[in-house]
Amino acid sequence: MARYPADREGRLLLAQLYADNQREDLAKELLKKGLEYHPTDPEYARVLFAYLLSVQADEEVIRLGEAIQRSPAGGSTPLGGVARFGVATACYHRGYFDRAEGYLAAPDLRATQKGRLLEAKIQWERGYPELALHQLRTLAEDFPGDDEIYIQLSAYLRQNRHFDEAHQLTLVFQMARPDSAQPRIDLLHDYARAVNTAALRQTAAEILRLFSRDERNLLALGDFAATTGQPALARQVRARLTAGSRSGESAALLTMEALIVAKEYPAALALAEELAGQTPPLSPRLQNLSQGLGAIAHYGNNDPEAGRLALSRFVAGANLRAGNLLAIANRLREVGARPQARDLLARAAVTDPGNQPVLSRLIELEIVQGDFEALPAHLLHLLAMRKPSRDLLARAGGLLGSDRFIFSRERFAALDAIKAHLALPVKPTRRGCSSPASADRHQ
Questions:
Q1: How do residues 257-286 score in pLDDT, each as one tens digit?
Q2: Rounded to an integer, what distance in angstroms lies between the CA atom of residue 108 and that of residue 106?
Q3: 88 closest CA partner among 71, 73, 77, 108
Q4: DSSP H stretches of helix in 356-430
Q5: What is the pTM of this model?
Q6: Are 405 and 411 in contact (CB under 8 A)?
Q7: CB under 8 Å to 336, separation ≥6 — which residues?
Q8: How far apart (Å, rounded) are the C-alpha atoms in residues 159 and 419?
Q9: Rounded to whole angstroms, what are the CA distances from 302 to 113, 265, 342?
């Protein structure tokens, strides 16, 4: 690269070598430097944005993407489209939904598969699940057999408890795509919900046998083990991935989460200690997540002092996404550390004030815990955002109108704003779905 800095393939290969050896800093700088030599190359920009998003450098994607759009090479060119979608994706990850939708409204993204899929994800995060499902069902009709659309629709159906529709969708997709592991993994969730242990073990063994060399599918199986609290399966996944690699490190953290969900807190802490002392060390981002999981394990193990220390290290980390914060806060709540979960989200709301999912979850915790002091201000902030959850606002309005707030001056402005918002008719969207409730006809 020193002799031929304009060699694109050499630059990409060297960046991959850096990334594989846990040198995200060098990979990032090398790829960003390449824009000087490939300023009008949309494929190079796509690779650059994909890597920056993978390491959670969202603000850099926003800065670089907006700079490209201002340049002569931006505008209505393929490079401008790549930049717009990169910025929209980064804004989505950070919870800047209004900004993301502004970019998705561009003519070159508005009707595309990837633009419509990202828009559905935004509606889901805003608290409009039926609207998101309506958009995804339409996408599935327009692009049958598409893996990404199937995965998102299947996940949202199950999260919204449309289990029969999700199971039917999975069986149809498995027949259409026998080479795909995802429908088998989705069936695992169905078997776990039905407590069908025999079918679960058989299907998991089938996935391990058929996809033993596929890191992505193995990690998906590890994620299932983590979310359902199955440490033995998580360990099987970890054993099939190379220790010290990025996928191996991710599998180790999934094993740690599986132990936490299974309430095997001492084993989770032992694994955290093992990971802290391994050579080479975990990447900074995964070290940070390990601290967050360790905090949960300490609280679950009735050691709040150690939990507070680990949690302080976690919040001191850089590039924490909303997903990281919400996941750790949710697990903290599950082990009874609700004040800590609330404090974590409050810190995130101050650091990232435009993050709507964080603020919504913070308000939910404040309602449940009775933390009323900052609730009116948080509600007014939420109402300034686009499409706040009407269900959440109704719950908060009922609380503000109760005798608990009878001596609170701050409640009146928030209560009036909530009533005014809930009284507004829900406007039709540009895709023809008049409101979240209108998608009920698809159930």
A1: 999 999 999 999 999 999 988 888 888 888
A2: 6
A3: 108
A4: 356-369, 375-383, 390-400, 410-423
A5: 0.67
A6: yes
A7: 299, 300
A8: 29
A9: 48, 10, 19
